[in-house]
């Protein structure tokens, strides 16, 4: 019986071949491409490219058209406006109701207040249902449109494309990227619209309630925007690096599963080498994931600190204006102040997350624009009306040498 031998696989650093590709920098890379033509002439597999900088407007416009265009956005805007109108109306009516003195109304008036409040709440609930259903339907429509274009482009792609791009890159787009477009992106998009309307309406109501004191919130909102822009720059590129570094892992796993019999046939040395390669590629992917987690934590800490500043300004204003506001309005403004704090933080987080997730449609559109091989229309030859009259096969002008 052979003795058992422990396998120790050393780890070492690995540099994943990834080159940035941006429309702004195409002209600057022309000279480098001409210089490296001879060096890359014998290469079969191309390096996987990635965009850099902000997600282009063309990607947003393409996804916007896939959702349904202007009609869908106008419909969503109307639904969200009605939703916030019913929501704020119910809160203002409740503030008016609780501000009434105990002896100033009878039982009929209380029933009337309850009826109005219930109708406003029911209207808000109906708008929430319509909004959620619309987001799901248009999100699935956009996903189906992008999926169909990707599949059609790959079916028409030349064979050279499949030789130069490993199967893991295609699987990554059909797996992770399509999953993001199917599930994550529609709900993030809908959540961003909801949070935007919610925060703007609540903030406007709180500022209107506190008069001139509410102006102090504007500098804090400006700081929110600045921090968000500073956070988005690295988070976009880290997300791209994480997605690009996932393709080599999937390619290696796929190749190992397909050739497991051959790998085992060559013995322990080949098994150790395959394990070592797998560790290297997973380490590279984990580095990108760790960098993404660190940047998110950095962003959340600063959002919480500024949110505390917003609450402090609002509460200080309410204390200063306590003699000029009714108890109902004070409670309403204080409640809105707490929701504005979380709403602004969620708004910035959702916008940054949406722009990060837009990398997936960007990668899908990259493979949806592959130059087709041959004509996109099938060649149709109309036969003669009397064809076939006889079952003969003729070779004309054929030369064998």
Automatic annotation (TrEMBL):
<feature type="transmembrane region" description="Helical">
    <location>
        <begin position="212"/>
        <end position="233"/>
    </location>
</feature>
<keyword id="KW-0677">Repeat</keyword>
<dbReference type="GO" id="GO:0016020">
    <property type="term" value="C:membrane"/>
</dbReference>
<feature type="compositionally biased region" description="Basic and acidic residues">
    <location>
        <begin position="22"/>
        <end position="32"/>
    </location>
</feature>
<feature type="transmembrane region" description="Helical">
    <location>
        <begin position="116"/>
        <end position="140"/>
    </location>
</feature>
<dbReference type="InterPro" id="IPR044726">
    <property type="entry name" value="ABCC_6TM_D2"/>
</dbReference>
<dbReference type="GO" id="GO:0012505">
    <property type="term" value="C:endomembrane system"/>
</dbReference>
<protein>
    <recommendedName>
        <fullName>ABC transmembrane type-1 domain-containing protein</fullName>
    </recommendedName>
</protein>
<feature type="domain" description="ABC transmembrane type-1">
    <location>
        <begin position="74"/>
        <end position="355"/>
    </location>
</feature>
<keyword id="KW-0472">Membrane</keyword>
<dbReference type="InterPro" id="IPR050173">
    <property type="entry name" value="ABC_transporter_C-like"/>
</dbReference>
<dbReference type="GO" id="GO:0005524">
    <property type="term" value="F:ATP binding"/>
</dbReference>
<keyword id="KW-0813">Transport</keyword>
<dbReference type="GO" id="GO:0140359">
    <property type="term" value="F:ABC-type transporter activity"/>
</dbReference>
<dbReference type="InterPro" id="IPR011527">
    <property type="entry name" value="ABC1_TM_dom"/>
</dbReference>
<keyword id="KW-0547">Nucleotide-binding</keyword>
<feature type="transmembrane region" description="Helical">
    <location>
        <begin position="60"/>
        <end position="83"/>
    </location>
</feature>
<keyword id="KW-1133">Transmembrane helix</keyword>
<feature type="transmembrane region" description="Helical">
    <location>
        <begin position="303"/>
        <end position="321"/>
    </location>
</feature>
<keyword id="KW-0067">ATP-binding</keyword>
<feature type="region of interest" description="Disordered">
    <location>
        <begin position="1"/>
        <end position="48"/>
    </location>
</feature>
<dbReference type="InterPro" id="IPR036640">
    <property type="entry name" value="ABC1_TM_sf"/>
</dbReference>
<keyword id="KW-0812">Transmembrane</keyword>
<feature type="transmembrane region" description="Helical">
    <location>
        <begin position="333"/>
        <end position="353"/>
    </location>
</feature>
<feature type="transmembrane region" description="Helical">
    <location>
        <begin position="179"/>
        <end position="200"/>
    </location>
</feature>
<dbReference type="Pfam" id="PF00664">
    <property type="entry name" value="ABC_membrane"/>
</dbReference>
